[in-house]
Write a structure and sequence with these properties.
The protein has 209 residues and is mostly helical. 66% of the residues lie in helices and 0% in strands. It is built from 10 helices and no strands. α1 packs across α2, α2 crosses α3 and α8 crosses α9. The longest helix is centred in the N-terminal third of the chain and has 24 residues. The termini are far apart.
Length: 209
């Protein structure tokens, strides 16, 4: 199956999930919306569990791609981290699967695939990847932190600065996740909280030594 057809099936599954609990989503309906046979759907994903894993993997990848975009939005390191925080909270608000992945709180409406890898006999490379381990909340903290460190560390970054930079990046990620559970009050939102948390900035974030 072409990647576009697989995406159409995942889009159909995501739309169905927005309208009804995952337990009520039927494979035959997902296939019909995507314009393929039910057998084609099973050939691609193997099972409803396989479809759920593929959907979760896609949303995880989309969230991390958004992190990369946020890191490219500003020149100032603090503003780049603030952009990550804003993206994290907005993505969680707009996507129930992202919120569940970031917090570990899976409601009864959602699929709840095991995060560990499952045996896969799929001939579809994308499905074999989906059948691999899925990221936990702790994995997301590390993934976002490491992407931020890689983007912000310069050629002159010392070992000490790299350590402090990693601490600052992880602080921002964890602050973002706290705002997913409890939105910040007042003006400024999560960006304001991040700016406050990073002020005065450490030299690793561009402040003078």
């Amino acid at each position: 199956m072409m990647p576009a057809a697989r995406e159409s099936l995942l889009d159909a599954a995501y739309t169905a999930l927005a309208r009804r609990p995952w337990s009520a989503v039927r494979m035959v309906d997902v296939a019909a919306v995507a314009g393929v046979s039910r057998q084609t759907l099973y050939n691609e994903f193997g099972s409803k569990e396989g479809l759920a894993r593929a959907l979760v993997r896609r949303e995880a990848d989309a969230f991390l791609a958004g992190v990369e975009r946020a890191l490219a939005t500003h020149a100032d390191p603090r503003e780049r981290l603030a952009a990550i925080a804003e993206w994290t909270t907005s993505a969680a608000r707009g996507n129930a699967l992202v919120r569940a992945m970031l917090t570990g709180c899976w409601s009864e409406r959602l699929p709840s695939p095991t995060l560990t890898a499952v045996p896969s006999a799929s001939a579809v490379p994308a499905q074999r990847r989906a059948d691999g381990a899925l990221p936990s909340p702790a994995d997301f903290v590390a993934l976002v932190r490491d992407r931020a460190v890689a983007a912000l560390a310069g050629p002159g970054t010392t070992r000490s600065d790299a350590f402090e930079l990693a601490r600052s990046c992880e602080l921002v990620v964890r602050l973002s996740l706290s705002c997913v559970a409890a939105p910040p009050p007042g003006e400024g939102g999560v960006k304001g909280l991040v700016r406050t948390a990073l002020s005065p900035p450490h030299r690793a974030l561009g402040a003078p030594a």
